[in-house]
Amino acid sequence: MSRxxxxxxxLAFLLLPTSGVAEDQIEISLDKAELRRKTLLLNTxxxxxxxxxxxxxxxxxxxxxxxxxxxxxxxxxxxxGADKIGHFYTTYIIGRAFRQVYLNWGYExxxxxxxxxxxxxxxxxxxxxxxxxxSDYGFSYEDMLMNLAxxxxxxxxxxxxxxxxxxxxxAEYLPGFNADDKIDIVTDYEHLKFLLALKxxxxxxxxxxxxxxxxxxxxxxxxNYDGYHPGDPDRRERILYAGLGLNVGKLLERWVTVxxxxxxxxxxxxxxxxxxxx
Length: 278
Fold this sequence. Notes:
The chain is of the alpha/beta class. It has one domain. Helices cover 43% and strands 17% of the residues. The protein is built from 8 helices and 8 strands. It has a 6-stranded mixed β-sheet. It is flat, with a radius of gyration of 20 Å.
């Protein structure tokens, strides 16, 4: 996946408003032809950036295309399935970023939602196709299916606002502090967790009580896959957990309203009950 593209889009997105721009608040200064032109330029720029970066850093187009099966969440897979959820989450958050850009440009809500899903899926598909020409990667059907699911999930939340009020898809990142630890919020699966949060604030009958600040978590993460080689002591772990957490965004909304806490989970703000499959 493109670390650079993802980080840039995530940072830009997290500074955007949480909700769509109301139609009566938009002064549409662009006609349809101009909107199409800007949309084409944006997607062309993103796609071109992926290809340039891939050629420079990932050996794109250095060999004939190849594909490979990486399996899903098995113990013996490369990342225990954390990378698959990473594809799901990355496509989801890029789609939300595109959607918000289109809303801010003046697209109607339904159009922005569709375009956001297609733009994110297009960007991730281009990366996967580029990977097929790389000696280090290869086209992965599992990754592509998770890209499709991530784009679909983002679109689903967009078209059902009541569901969007209740559910967040988040990543938690707590980097290591050793000298050899890498800082990479996108693919550092040794320090990443992914979770789905069910927010009490999304239920009308709970909004008048203190329970509105609570949420339920269902998450997954893996550990000790990085640096493992066959023959080493096998300490690899795949962990599923359920948790009771604090809705940090809700707690802070009196002072600041940004979407960052809808997509990133603060460590140590929940109590987990874990199941280790290994």
